Structures are given as structure tokens and as C-alpha cells.
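Hey, resending since the last one bounced:
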Amino acid sequence: MRTRILAVTLVALTACTSLPTNGEALPSPTPVALVTAGAEPTAVATPSLVPPTAHPEPSPRVTREVAGFEFALVPGAADLRVDTSLSREDEAVVATTVASDLPAVEREFARSFAGRPVIYVFATTPGYTEGFVRIFGYGRATATFVAENSVSFFEPSLRLIAVNWEAVRDRRPIAAIRHELTHLLTLDACAPRCDLVPAWLNEGQARIAEALVPGSDWRLVRVRYEAASMAETGTLIPLNALVSQLAWNALSDWAGYFKYQEAARAVELLREDIGGDAPIALLYERLRRGQNVAQAYAYLTGRSFDDFVTGLAARMRGAVPQTPGLIAVAPASYLLYGFAPATTVVVTVSGPRGSESWPMVISPFGSNFDGVPPTRARGGYTISAQDASGVFTAKVRKMDQGSPGDLR
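The C-alpha cells again:
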């Protein structure tokens, strides 16, 4: 039994990993701005005979102990179990996120979840790790491996979702839960022919779901530009090498991140070709009938899947204005793309308190993502990258506490 669980875990692992394995930084969340200085003067209030209205107390938490963990049971369409050590504010963010994710995923597949999705939200990384042991039944080594290589996780044999809130709370908008819910509904959508679903489709669909969360434009920009960078530098991974989950899982390090971006872009183009309000639902309908992806694509589009695959690189390259290049992606963050892999460029960040430069080695896939150091002052910044072909620039505006500025 333990061996079986280990095998299933490894099959599911990278399907549920939202953290880039190359350790790239992600944009900071958008803080809520509180207006203080410069507010209108407060008028003198007339005494009132009506006592002031007290702020309503939050409703008491309904809790349940599961394998030694204390979870708050959050009402809603999902069986949402939130570690009681989370603040009520964080609990509300989780609840709101799940409430919007569920119908969005159901629209994508044009079908409802067969039952209430069970989602465990752990407050910390140690709790997340321990949850895999006590609740999911993993061995200690497997639990540690999964926790170290994911921020959220879907276990297909148990149909359970786990979320590491410590790892995802600052990645606004939260997208990891929608990624896992997409995997969960995929199992219903493909039955009884889930053997016909290639890993690149399964994983790409979950990644593109993250990029379609409202407010995640920066994620979609990265998918498109990083895939274009792979196409420009000749480093696209052949789709036929990303069919089995074992082959998918074997790709780690830089490839462990970029495989997601390529697969997501391929799925985005697949959806575009099929067209309609729910192209993925149409595709899975054909899979359930026993057609493989190539046959389903040909049936739904009237075009050859071989032509789709052959044309991917050109379509990916054609989505960006020039290569190489440098663009602003999110608040105080920027992306270099289309540079020769493993070469060195000089990056310069110029802002309110001067400039600093350093060498940056380009990734094996021609693209690097970085940001203005958090220690730098607020204000406008010019980012430049210089190599033998020229100098490329982008402008960002760093606001207090990482709040969003103009992306030009």
C-alpha cells in the first residue's frame, strides 16, 4: 500500500506544483491603501440620543478535529477546511477565492463537480508537510518531498486538495486553488478515458487556469512571452515528449518550470482553434467517446493536429513584438525574453537613489524574470538589459509596500 501511494504521489506531484522550481521571485501582493494624511477635516458631531451601533462580532467558527489538526469548516459549495490558526481575515480570503474558483472551473468544462471538493488549507509549511502524513497517508519521506516541491497539491486517488497558505498568501490574486480544482474536475471530465489525456494537456490546462484568474494578467503575460522565448531560442520541448506523467515529472530545475509555460501556451492556442464558449468541454466530450487528442482536434477544427504541432513555434513567436526584448510584467517586476541561452547580459536598475548594475546569466530557455529589490525606494525605475545586440529598456513604478504602479 505504501508503494502504491508513493507512485501515485509522484505521478500527481508536478501537476499540483504552482511554485516555479527555479526559485524565481513572484510579484508582491497589492496592499489595501488606507487614506490618512490629507483627509477632509472631521465636522463636530451633534450629540445623538441614539447609541452608536456596535460592530457585529464575526460568526463563531464551526470546527472539526482531523488527525490532530483543528480546522474551521467554512460554509459554501466546497468542503473547505481551514487551519484555525489562520486569521479570520485570511480565512475570508480563502473562502472568497474558492467561491469564485468553483464556478469558473465548472464553466471551463461545462459540467459541475460530482461532489463537494474537499480542500485542506494548512497555515504553515510544517503543518502542510504533516498533513500529508496524517491525512493523506504518505510516508514521511514522500510527504517531505511533496511539501518541498509544491505550494498546493491534488491527490487523485483520494480526491483531496491541500494548500500551503504560508507559501501562497502573498501571491495575489490567489491562483493555486483554481489550479488544483482544475485537476479535480478533469478526472470527471475525462472518465472513462482518462488514459487519452496527455500530461501536457492536463498540466497546461491547470496552469492556464491560474493565468485566467481575474487580476492575473501578469501571469498570462509570462506564459505568452516565456513560451515565445522558448520558440525563439529553439528550446521548446516536443509535445510528444510530454505525453506521459512520468516523462513530465522527470523534467526538473529550469525545465521543470518552463514545461508549464509551454504547455499552458499550447493549451491556450488549442482553445483558440476549437473556439466556442467552452472549447475544453468540447474536447473532453470527444475524449470520452474514445478519440485521442489528435482525432478530437481534427474533428472539432477540420484541421490536422500535425499541422497544429508543426505551427506551434511560429505562432508562439508571432505573439510578441520583437526578440530579444525586455518588458515590465507586474509592479516593479520585469522579464527578459528571447536572449541566447546561457549568455550573460548586464542589467541596470536606475531609480530615485541612483543606479546599480550587475551581470545576469540567461536561463537555458532564453528568459529570466526579476524585480526591483524590495529595499529600493518607491518611485519610477528604468530597467535596462545590454548584450552584444544592443540595449533594451522597460519602465516600472515601485509604490509603497509593493503596491501597483504603471506598467509601461
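Confidence is low (pLDDT under 50) at residues 1-15, 17-56, 401-408.

Sorry for the duplicate.
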